[in-house]
Request: fold
Amino acid sequence: MQIERRELLARLDRALGRARAVVLAGPRQSGKSTLAAMRVDRRAARWFDLEHPVDRDRMLQPLTALEPLPRGGAHGPVVIDEVQLAPELFPVLRVLIDRSDAPGQFLLLGSASPALLRQTSESLLGRVEVVEVTGFDLGEVGPERQRALWQRGGFPPSFLARGDADSLAWRLQAVQRHVESDLPQFGVNVPAPAMLRFWRMLAHLHGQVWNAAEPARSLGISEPSVRRYLDVLTQTFMLRQLQPWHANLGKRQVKAPKLYFRDTGLLHALLGIGDFDALLAHPRSGASWEGFVIEQVLRVAQPDEAYFWATHGGAELDLLLFKGGRRVGVEVMRADAPRIAPSMQIALHDLQLDALYVVYPGERRYRLSDRIEVVPLDALLPDT
Reply:
């Protein structure tokens, strides 16, 4: 089964048309190489895979390998896959990129890592545009596959697996591989058993406000160490730290981020959820649905800024979006017929929202007031 990723491909084309280099950044098996292969043949001499011994040897003399190749404009980009494996390349790339103003000279594919982000910001600042590539979203797989996307997550090998057992097996292996292989490769020297235990602990904190004290105590390490572990999983696109919004309201507001797994398939694997019936029956089902909806909304809306909002008095809003001068609230409810809650009224007033959407798993769209509307998740897609 082939899933078209038209919007992502369009974003890549726009980036190649205006930036001298483009980085496709995302976790392994998220579709970066497939996307790049739609623009450059993987068998061509213009494609370097740094996990391949021959290509890695060619990159021992990067100027010799790259300088003769025409690049940019009508020639298309030179592709370097798994570029984070050779951080010494970035100064050479900077020199080559600066020799021409032509857009689309290089397309760099990298498994997101602290090292890749640092090299991109330090060595290629002003020369590169980053396009984030994660798993499939609802717009790509279609509303009719919403249940499967929520349960299995968006990683192509998991979503497209023949059955639930195969999908779960792939996700469990992906977690293990990330801990045992990817993180050490990225320079993260955390013992694999400790990181795996921490990751499983985070699965039970999905959708909650972050507090380092309990994880640190359970792991027997310092709170700064726990914070570093959390940041690593965030930088590798495994987690999202949704930051709180602060307003001068005369109310005590929550100031710590909320944690969400960016892929609910990985969340469910760590929680031991094997199929959709088990997901519905699990006590973390509501939190999982909330994270799934938030991730899909952010993918579709592409806001300028995104936050959550909560006060110590109990008022809260799952998502506060700023885009084009508008303030839009999103509340996620796993209920058959959501109604107006006092918290919604407080958020409308205190945050001066232009609109508030209540996203639920039903099919009917209806208004609760002039500024509050209940919508199915697929109603947020551009063509619906």
